[in-house]
């Protein structure tokens, strides 16, 4: 791979054809992703210092990816795309006020994968499959804010003077320092926030007033209403370890999760089967068909997969 092309890709200065070339290279081998992340990490650091950034651009052709320490994050074939041309990393910067506005970048995790990263304030984030996080290269003094579409688990670095805000299309989640899980896929009507440690404040035009959550509580949005209850399945959050865990879940709910996580349409001809329930754990890296084969051992159904249409039909 041309290192100069990779550098321009990171800076958002590529054509759609060039971006597709980089994406194909990334998707071909997980080692390519790790090499790319190492180069991107070097760029992130240099952006914070303009003189360093200029030096990095001048020497882009000489950079050897193998000489850069691989970033210690767990990433499984994460596709990095440049937004604006329907691809990857996005850097939004005004030429007139670069010092006032932070640089933003977007991390997208494709179906069947997950990613872990550390934000500029040392907050840890795990992104689930088919999720997107927009975050700044450096937080401003009076705000720590990110945008989420999809599902993420946060371990927020405590800072009582500057709250941490996760903005979604449905609710803003405001915290000081805590551990919580947010599921807010834009294509799904449902929304969930589960608080494991600390405290969380939910703010939304759909709520009559802000709601303060307590540890062990889950708030979810369903059928146009918000509900609150206790976390029933702590193992669910092991998705950040690559496990998909179900506890006495209806089959139709499991199919919805599989469709979302693996970006495949699942059609049902066996309606009685959907009402049955299942408890079990799966490795996400094994893929959707492995889950279906295990389910077949306890439930009577057949399935047909149309690879061209990306559709699985349950019979």
From TrEMBL:
Membrane-spanning residues: 68-89
Recorded superkingdom: Bacteria
InterPro entries hit by this protein: FecR, FecR_C, Ferrdict_sens_TM
Coiled coil: none
Annotated ranges, domain FecR protein: 107-200
Stretches assigned to the Protein FecR C-terminal domain: 244-312
Keywords of the record: Membrane, Transmembrane, Transmembrane helix
Name the UniProt record assigns to this protein: FecR domain-containing protein
Native organism: Parabacteroides faecalis
